[in-house]
Specification:
Number of helices: 3
Radius of gyration: 12 Å
Order of helices and strands: EHEHEH
Largest sheet: 3 strands, parallel
Helix content: 25-40%
Length: 69
């Protein structure tokens, strides 16, 4: 089973090809969600669907700390 990566909106969709060439399954958030979705929405979707979030957004650390893991 491939590791699944969800690329956040703050990163280029070009990352998808980089991850796929490295053997990962990858999606860019623009393929599945609203471009102005809240970080919490992206995090919840990734958890529900078994994806790791790849982001340049420093706020994700605070979200992880404030949510039950």
């Amino acid at each position: 089973m491939k590791t699944k990566i969800l690329i956040d909106m703050n990163l280029s969709p070009k990352w998808k090809l980089v991850f796929e060439q490295a053997g990962f399954e990858a999606l860019h958030w623009s393929e599945i969600g609203e471009p102005d979705a809240l970080d919490e929405t992206i995090m919840e979707w990734s958890r529900s669907n078994g994806y790791i979030v790849f982001t340049n957004d420093l706020d994700f650390n605070a979200i992880l700390i404030n949510q039950e893991l």
